Amino acid sequence: MSRQILQNEDDVPVVMVVDDTPANLKLLDLMLRETYRVVSFNRGETALSAAIENPPDIVLLDINMPGMDGFEVCRRMKTYRQLHEVPVIFISALADTADKVKAFTTGGVDYVTKPFHVDEVKARVATHLTVSGLRNELQKHNEHLEQLVQEKIQEVHDSQIATIVALAKLAEHRDTDTGRHLERVQSYTKLLARHLQRSEHFADRISDSFVSSLYHASPLHDIGKVSIPDSILLKPDRLTRDEFEIMKTHTVVGAQTLESVHRRYRNNEFLTVGLALTRSHHEHWDGSGYPEGIAGEAIPLEGRIMAVADVYDALRTRRVYKPACDHATTRDTILEASGTQFDPRVVEAFLAIEAEFEEVSRAMED
C-alpha cells in the first residue's frame, strides 16, 4: 500500500508513515490526517525512494519489514543531504533496550513501542516537528548572518585593497613615464600564477587565495620608490653607479614599510605576499640580484613571478631613455636570461602563455 507524495503547496507538514501492516498504516493515517498530510508506504525501499524525490517533514518508521528493515531505511536516509535533518520516529513492537539504542544510533530521534497510544504519537510528532522547524529557522538565520558578515568582510577587504592600490599609484605617479604599468603587471602576475598552479611542481604551493593575493599585492612592488629623490627617479638618462645604488634601496624601503604593518597582522596573506614580492622582485636566480643576493629557490616565489612580469612590461614600454621593444624581442630577452636572472620554470610558464601576455600589453597600451 502506498500513496504518492505530492508537493506541499499549502505548507502543511508532510508525515511519512512506513509500516508493513495495513492496519497500522490505516490507524496512523486516521489519527494524523486532520492536522498533517500523511503519505503511507508498506515497504522500506519504496518509502526511501519517495523520500529522496520529495523529502517529508517527519517519518514514522517501523523496524521489522520485509526487504529493507527500518534501521537500514533510517541509516540510508541520513546519507542524503536533503534527508539528513528529517526527524525519524521509530514505532515498533520491539521493546528491547538494544533495539532502542540501535534506533538512536542509526539516526532516529524518538522511539514509540507498539501498541501505541494515539495521544502519545500525536504529541511526539508535534514536538519533533516544532523542534525541527526551530532548528531550520535557526539554520536559516545563521546562514543569513554569515552572509551579512561575509559581505561586510568583503566590503572592508575591497576598501583596504583600493586604498593600498591608490597609495601605490600615488607613489608611481611620481614617475610620469609608467602609464598603466601597475594594471598590466597585475594581469601578468595572475596569468603566470594560474599557469604555474596547474603544474606538478607548484600545484601544492599555489592556492587560489595565493593567486588572488599576488594579483592584489603586485602594485606594491615599487612602493619604496617614494623614497627615491626626483633627481634620480625622474632622470631622463641612464643612472650612474652611485645613483643606481640609491635606486636599489627602494626594495628595502618598501619592504620595511610593509613589515611594520605585517608585524601586527602576521596571518594576513595579502601583506605576506606583498612583503615578499616587494623585497625580492629584483633578486636573480643566479644570486647576482639585489638587495640580498639570494639565489634559486631561496628567492620567494612571489618575487620570481613578479620579476618576469615586471621586466616584460619594462621592456615593452617606451621610456624617455629607450624605445619600446616588440613582443618577440622581449620574449627572446627573457628566454636568454632564463637560469641567470629568472627562474627557468617561471620562464617556461611565460613561454606557454606568451600570446596572452602580448594580448594584455596591446589591450592596456599607454
Commentary on this structure:
With 366 residues, the chain is of the alpha/beta class. It folds into two domains: 14-142, Response regulator (Rossmann fold); 173-363, Orthogonal Bundle (Hypothetical protein af1432), CATH 1.10.3210. It has 14 helices and five strands. It has helices at residues 22-32, 44-53, 70-77, 97-105, 118-172, 181-197, 208-217, 230-233, 241-262, 269-280, 301-316, 327-336, 344-352, 354-363; strands at residues 14-18, 37-41, 58-61, 88-92, 110-113. A five-stranded parallel sheet has the order 2-1-3-4-5, sandwiched between helices. Helix 6 packs antiparallel against helix 7 (208-217) and helix 6 (181-197) crosses helix 11 (301-316). The longest helix has 55 residues, at 118-172. It is elongated and about 100 Å long. The chain starts with 13 loop residues before the first strand and ends with a helix. The model is unreliable at 1-9 (pLDDT under 50).
By CATH, the superfamily of the largest domain comes out as: Hypothetical protein af1432
Radius of gyration: 34 Å
How many distinct domains? 2
In CATH terms, what is the fold-level topology of the largest domain?
A: Hypothetical protein af1432
- Specify the CATH class of the largest domain: Mainly Alpha
The number of helical elements comes to: 14
Q: What is the CATH architecture annotation of the largest domain?
A: Orthogonal Bundle
The topology string of helices and strands comes to EHEHEHEHEHHHHHHHHHH
Distance between the termini: 76 Å
Q: What oligomeric state best describes the polypeptide chains here? A: single chain
Unreliably modeled segments: 1-9
What order do the strands of the largest sheet run in, or round the barrel if closed?
2-1-3-4-5
The helix content is 55-70%
Report the strand count: 5
* Classification by helices and strands: alpha/beta
Q: What number is the mean pLDDT?
A: 88
As a percent range, the share of strand residues is 5-15%
Q: What kind of sheet is the major sheet?
A: 5 strands, parallel
- Molecular shape: elongated
